[in-house]
Amino acid sequence: MRKIFCFFILLFFFFSNTSVRAENPFPLYDSNSFCFRHANTPDGVSDQALSACLSQQSIALYRVKHQWDSVPSYVQSECDRLNRKYGDPDYAALNSCLTAQMALNPPQIFKKKPKEPKSGFFLDPLATH
């Protein structure tokens, strides 16, 4: 009985110390399909456009990966949601959203958790105004 109790105590401590970021895992987008769709022309796939797109996605993926853990979770989820909204998510758009939101709302050190913004708080970088 005592072993079972200790086991459950250990499980509790293990799961209680998990990262807060686990609720917003790093988003995975299909850059290859995205670039093939955007490089497709009536004459076939443009190798130059495909290469440029894949390069742009690779650079944006690198930038997003390196800033993801420092971005507040509500910004992560909202930028990911906006990026998926139009059905063709890509890392360049995600990077633009994260950069814009962090410029508008620079991270601060809070003693308490900050209030989450109202629903109309975020700019939609892909929307046409």
Which features does this protein show?
129 residues; two-stranded antiparallel sheet; 56% helix
Q: DSSP helix count?
A: 5
Give the helices and strands as they follow along the chain.
HHEEHHH
Strand order, largest beta sheet: 1-2
CA radius of gyration = 20 Å
- How much helical structure, as a percent, in the residues? 55-70%
Give the overall average pLDDT: 78
Terminus-to-terminus distance: 65 Å
User: Could you describe the largest sheet, including whether it forms a barrel?
Assistant: 2 strands, antiparallel
Outline of this structure?
The chain has 129 residues and is mainly alpha-helical. 56% of the residues lie in helices and 3% in strands.
Topology, pairings included?
Blueprint: H1 2-16, H2 31-39, E1 40-41, E2 44-45, H3 47-67, H4 73-85, H5 91-104
